Every structure is written in C-alpha cells, then in structure tokens.
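Dear Dr. H.,

I hope your travels went smoothly. While you were away I took the liberty of generating a structure for the chain from your last submission, since the lab meeting agenda had it listed for discussion. I wanted you to have the full record in hand beforehand rather than looking at slides cold. The sequence, exactly as received, is reproduced here:
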Amino acid sequence: MKSMLIKTIFLINILFILGCKAQTSTDYINHYNEVVPKLNSIIPNKTQFYGQNFSTFYTELQNKNILPEGWIYDTKISPSKKYYVLKLFFYDMNMLRVARENSYRMPRMIVTFENEIPYPQVQALMEQYHAVWNPTVAQFFSTLKVEKIEFTGVKGYNSDDFSE
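The corresponding predicted structure, in token form, is as follows:
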C-alpha cells in the first residue's frame, strides 16, 4: 500500500512538472505586445486622473482590460521614510526572469500620490500578498489622490528609450 502511494505521488509530481511550461523569449514578446498597446492608450489622457482618487483611475484600467500582476511601493525622494509612490508591474516572476535574461524592457506604471501612503498598512499588505496585485490591494489605494502617473518600458521590448 505504501509503495502504491509513493508511486502515485511520484506520478502526480511528474505530471505537474511536465504541465508547467517554462516561459520563453517569444512568450515574453507576445505578452509585451499585448500589454503595451493597452498602456499606451492611457498615456494621452492620464492627466485627467490627477487629483482624482486612485479608484477612478483603476476603474479606467479595468475598463481597458489592463490588469497589473505585481506592485511595490516607494519613496518620492530618496533617502526618505515617507512613501508616496505605487509601481505597478504587468508581468509575473517567470516573465521577469525572461526579460532580465534577455535585457528586455519591462512595462511599468508609476503612480505618485498627493498624500503619504500609510507605511504599517502597506508593508503588511506587501508581506501578506507577496507583491501580487489583487482586489484587496486595489481597495487599499482606492482613496489616495493621484498626483502624477508615469509609464516606463513602453517604447518597445528592446528599446533604449525609457520615456513615455
């Protein structure tokens, strides 16, 4: 009986491993080419969200099917212990690995808020969700007022131009 259980677990592990597809350069380029036009559609009208709650901007992202995968928070001025910046990423860890290995650009959205992001709460969210974007994280930022929105890595996956 124990031998059968070990064989079953071994078989399940093999099937799991075979089912996990490694991300390739082509996968990254296809993903980039799907995400970046959506991001570029926001750039011309981004200033209309300045002074608005993040929830208004986030609704626009959802309406355009722009779904962040990860996030981090940052300071506006370095060095500082005051956090005003939310950086949104549109790739997972596997895609990040491929991008780094190939020196590809990674599209990012940088949202600066008018008021400080409460540190203990944002740090707790970061630890709880391991930087994965989800509705709870979106809700946390929803009432913060947007000061500025910037985009990087949207000029081509292999471009040296980091501007919008």
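Two observations you may find useful: The radius of gyration is 19 Å. DSSP finds six helices and four strands in the chain.

With kind regards,
E. W.
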